[in-house]
Structures are given as structure tokens and as C-alpha cells.
Amino acid sequence: MFPHHREREQPIFSARAHVFQIDPTTKRNWIPASKHAVTVSFFYDANRNVYRIISVGGTKAIINCTVTPSMTFTKTSQKFGQWADSRANTVYGLGFATEQQLHQFSDKFKEVKDAARLAREKSQDKELANTALTIAAPQDLSDELQSPPVMCVNGPEDKLFRSQSADITLSSEKERIKKMLSEGSICEMNLEAELFTLQDSNSKLVAALHEANANVEQWKKQLAAYQEETERLRDQVAELEAHGGQGPSDMLKDELTQSLEELEALLKAKDEEIHILQSKKAEYHEMEHERDEAIHRLRETEMRNSDLERRIQNSEQNLNNSLEERDRMDSEIQRAIEILDIKIFDLNDLRQSLVKLIDK
Description:
Structural class: alpha+beta
Strand content: 15-25%
Oligomer: single chain
Number of helices: 4
Shape: elongated
Helix content: over 70%
């Protein structure tokens, strides 16, 4: 089975990325599907003319998705993208190492989607060509047999037009509500991806800050020891200069002076490192501010989403009421048609009676 599968499907593109799946319970949070970056590949089945996205982690398939023309790959950040698989009832997310890899995967996704659309259109054209001769004649005959006579009555016709316009209004309102809900969900997913990126950067900065704080304390102790050593050497040099020829030789004096210069250079380097760490601490505070803003925007999006859900519930209630009203109108129209049929039958009888009377 495995060799046959390899002969049937051929890889056409591969990339490495971190794979995520949307939480099936909340439909809001991302769940990592792989601990490390894995290979995500596009495969083409020449026999069935089908494209698939496959990724394997260890011994199980993380992604097994058939590409359809209705799928769309959305870039939610500089290194993160996602698409929905309606057959698996999930949303896949991919985190790439570079922005260039994300662009390459997005371009290949669009190319494969267009190829799948062309393959579907070709298969549909073939099916239509094979079945056109067998379907045409029965359809024409059934249309002629099933077409009812047209009756023009002002009251029921007016109600029929109103019912059709109500159907058009309800369908357009339903499409508008679906569009609003999809836009809210996409915006919320974008903010969640941005928040995930900020949290990752925040954790890295926190670890670097803790390490820097520990290094600063150690360097402060070393700096104090260097300062004490420098003061002691300066006192020795001053003492040597005061005693003149009674002290050590000039060679020892040069060595002490060189040691003093090295310690001063080391002190300057440590001061620069402390300055760099302080600037990193400022960047950390700025990242915290950006994270708070992202959390605030996410909460606002959740509020808008709840408002959209409430509006959808109201629209569904209105839709149900409109459907009930339409059913009631349909029953009234049917009743009116039955009454008209009876009246027409009575008038026909009356006409025949009058004709008989005239003939006599």
C-alpha cells in the first residue's frame, strides 16, 4: 500500500513551520500540534487530479487536508498564516521562521488552489458532456407536463409578489450577517496571533532581563573590587613617587601604571555594558505596553463579537417570524385559490345553464 501511494502522489513543494490547530471547544485559542518545526508539503495525485497538504510529526499525520477552490490562506502577521478546512472542521495555523518563507508558502497555496479549481471545472465539463444527451429530452418533457396554467387574479398575485420580495430580503439579510460574523472572527484570530507573538517575545525578554539583572549584580561586585584595587594601586604609586629612589625600581612602577590603565579600561567596558542593559530594560517596558494594548484590543473584539452574536440571534428570531408569516400567507393564498376554483366551476355551470336556456 505504501509504495503504491508514493507512486500515485508526488511532492511539489515543502517548507518547515510550527503547526497549530484552533481549539475545537472555544474556536478562539491556538493549540500547538508539534513541539518543533516540521515539514509541511504539497502533494499532487495525478490519477485523481487532487492536491493535498500533508505534514507528519513522529508517527502520526498532523495535517491531512485536501485543497479545494473555496479555501483561502490568510497572512495574520509577518510570520504567521492560517486557513480553514471545512471537511476536518478545524483551522490550521503555520508559524514560519522568516517572512520570506511565509510569502513562498502563500504563493504556492494560491497556485495549488487555482490548479484545483481548473481541475474541478474540467471534471464538471466532462460530466456535463457525458450526461447532456440523456438528460435533455426527459427534462423538456417534464417541463411541459408539469407547467401549470397561469391564472391572473389581483389579490393572490399581489401576495405572491410580496412573498418573493420577502424571500429576497431575508436571504440578503442573512448573507450580510454571515459576512459580519466572518469579519469579526478573522479580526479576532488576527489579534490572537499578534498576542501569541507578543507573548513569545515577552517571555524571551523576561528571561534576558533576569539574566541581565543577575549579571549586573555580579558586575557591580566586580566593579567595587576593581575600584578598591585601583585605589590601592594609586596609593602605592603615590607612595612610590613620594619616596623617590628609596622605593622599588622604575620597572615595578611601570608595571603598576600598566595595571592601573588596564583596570580603568575594564571599568569603562563594564559601564558600557550596564548602559546597554538599562536600554534593554526600557525596551522590555515598551513591549509590556504593546502587550497591554493588544490585550485591550482583544477584549474590545470579544465585546464586538458578543454584540454580533446578539444581533445574529435577533436576526434569526426575525427570520423565523418572517418564515412563519410567509407560511401563513402561503396558506391564505392556497385557500384563496381553492375558493376561486370553486367560483370558476360555479360560473362555468351557470354559463352552461344559460346556454341551454338560450337554445330552448
